[in-house]
């Protein structure tokens, strides 16, 4: 689609916000985003996706897909992943993974793209993220006070027992933080309202506390890479890249990352470590993931072009890795999946599938950048946020494959919302970046 056509997208319309379908959709999306960091909510999450899709279809009708500029690449990726079910040795597993990890996130991508066209839609997503953060803080604290054994089927008596049981896995809560922090960075850097900036800063401080409790090393690395990325891309799009703030962000990020890695490494180790050497370096040197990747890389060579079928657990089932003695010696959880999102994709859908997945992301980001160049400062900030979000996803999944279930839904919901903010524009709203560039302040 030519850039000239992109710039003609209607900036802001009410689209019948007074209708019951739109109000229902906002409520459903608020609840859905809020429960994403929780455990034992699979049925509720799936039901909310279905009801939100029905409400969106009733409200937007054919606009839901006709007005989405990235529809074709998404459909190509979905079609190829669905086709891989045909050569999967476990078609039912592949179909279930396709439904929960691709189809549902794609529906939420379409919905959030349209939802941010209106102010009430944006408020619904923001409220859901805020409530989700509070819930995540509460359940994580409860799990720290009253730990729950993995695999527990029922909650312990009392409110604390129920909250601890609902606490999501540490890897999921840290992924929730890594993804949601990116739009918060954009808001904190570009908002002209002091109250909004302080609220964003407080939100990020809550994320920092959650991150320490999750003991995720990749989380802080992801955060400290996504912020400089956002600053650099934003500066380049504006044609005014200020190296000072970027260098400060990089230096602070390196220091915070190093301190966080050291602290989390010491928290993870069962015994007190001496302070004359780095616990983080020792853990990195003894990390089992390079050995895991080597085994899965050799397996990927068996079906390099098309893989063995979509689904994170399909390669493990196909090659019967639960009985693999080599992986057992490396790590007792090594058989589950490849512990790297790109390697996992090659195993599932081959190099052809990885190429289509990459093309989808390149197309989405290039569209965001092209559209932002023809628009104002606000859209440029969101285009930078889109690139930073993809980077955060790659960094967070460099040592794991977490793009499943709620994490996949959150990622594609945020991408749809960010792309929608760029595509539809800010309407009558304007952005003054006097905080970042005094020359940009009005006369």
Reconstruct the topology from this structure.
Elements: H1 3-6, H2 20-35, H3 42-60, H4 63-66, H5 71-83, H6 91-115, H7 119-145, H8 159-166, H9 170-190, H10 194-214, H11 217-238, H12 243-268, H13 279-285, H14 289-300, H15 314-318, H16 325-330, H17 341-373, H18 377-396, H19 405-424
Describe this structure as you would to a colleague:
- The longest helix has 33 residues, at 341-373.
- The chain is mostly helical.
- Helix 14 packs across helix 17.
- The protein has one domain.
- The two termini are 37 Å apart.
- Helices cover 70% and strands 0% of the residues.
- It contains 19 helices and no strands.
- The protein has helices spanning 3-6, 20-35, 42-60, 63-66, 71-83, 91-115, 119-145, 159-166, 170-190, 194-214, 217-238, 243-268, 279-285, 289-300, 314-318, 325-330, 341-373, 377-396, 405-424.
How many separate domains? 1
If helices are DSSP runs of H or I spanning 4 or more residues, what is the number of helices?
Answer: 19
- The share of residues in helices is 55-70%
Strand content: under 5%
Largest sheet: none
Distance between the termini: 37 Å
The whole-number mean of residue pLDDT values reads 87
Total strands? 0
Form type: globular
How large, in whole angstroms, is the Cα Rg? Answer: 22 Å
- Sequence stretches where pLDDT stays below 50 over 5 or more residues: 1-14, 427-443
Would you list the SSEs in sequence order as H and E?
HHHHHHHHHHHHHHHHHHH
Derived structural class: mainly alpha
């Amino acid at each position: 689609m030519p850039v000239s056509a992109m710039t003609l997208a209607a900036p802001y319309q009410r689209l019948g916000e007074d209708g019951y379908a739109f109000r229902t959709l906002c409520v459903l999306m608020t609840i859905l985003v809020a429960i994403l960091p929780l455990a034992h909510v699979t049925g509720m999450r799936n039901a909310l996706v279905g009801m939100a899709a029905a409400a969106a279809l009733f409200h937007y009708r054919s606009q839901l897909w006709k007005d989405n500029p990235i529809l074709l690449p998404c459909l190509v990726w979905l079609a190829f992943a669905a086709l891989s079910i045909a050569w999967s040795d476990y078609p039912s597993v592949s179909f279930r993974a396709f439904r929960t990890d691709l189809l549902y996130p794609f529906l939420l991508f379409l919905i959030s793209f349209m939802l941010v066209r209106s102010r009430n839609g944006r408020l619904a997503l923001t409220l859901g993220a805020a409530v989700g953060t509070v819930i995540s803080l509460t359940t994580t604290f409860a799990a720290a006070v009253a730990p729950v054994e993995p695999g527990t089927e029922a909650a312990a008596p009392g409110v604390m027992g129920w909250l601890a049981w609902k606490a999501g896995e540490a890897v999921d809560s840290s992924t929730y933080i890594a993804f949601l922090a990116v739009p918060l960075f954009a808001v904190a850097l570009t908002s002209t309202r002091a109250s909004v900036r302080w609220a964003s800063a407080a939100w990020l401080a809550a994320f920092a506390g959650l991150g320490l409790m999750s003991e995720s090393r990749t989380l802080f690395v992801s955060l400290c890479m996504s912020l400089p990325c956002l600053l650099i891309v934003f500066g380049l799009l504006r044609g005014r890249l200020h190296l000072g703030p970027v260098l400060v962000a990089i230096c602070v990020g390196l220091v915070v990352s190093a301190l966080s890695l050291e602290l989390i490494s010491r928290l993870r180790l069962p015994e007190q470590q001496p302070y004359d050497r780095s616990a983080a370096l020792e853990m990195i040197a003894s990390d089992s993931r390079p050995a895991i990747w080597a085994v899965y890389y050799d397996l990927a060579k068996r079906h390099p072009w098309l893989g063995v079928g979509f689904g994170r657990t399909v390669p493990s089932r196909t090659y019967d890795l639960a009985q693999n003695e080599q992986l057992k010696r490396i790590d007792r959880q090594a058989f589950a999946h490849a512990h790297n999102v790109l390697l996992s994709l090659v195993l599932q859908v081959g190099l052809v599938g990885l190429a289509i997945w990459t093309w989808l992301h390149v197309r989405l980001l290039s569209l965001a950048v092209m559209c932002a160049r023809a628009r104002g400062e606000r859209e440029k900030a969101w285009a930078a946020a889109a690139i930073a979000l993809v980077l955060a996803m790659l960094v967070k999944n460099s040592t794991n494959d977490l793009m499943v279930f709620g994490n996949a839904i959150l990622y594609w919901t945020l991408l749809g919302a960010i792309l929608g903010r760029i595509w539809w524009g800010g309407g009558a709203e304007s952005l003054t970046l006097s905080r970042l560039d005094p020359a940009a302040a009005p006369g």
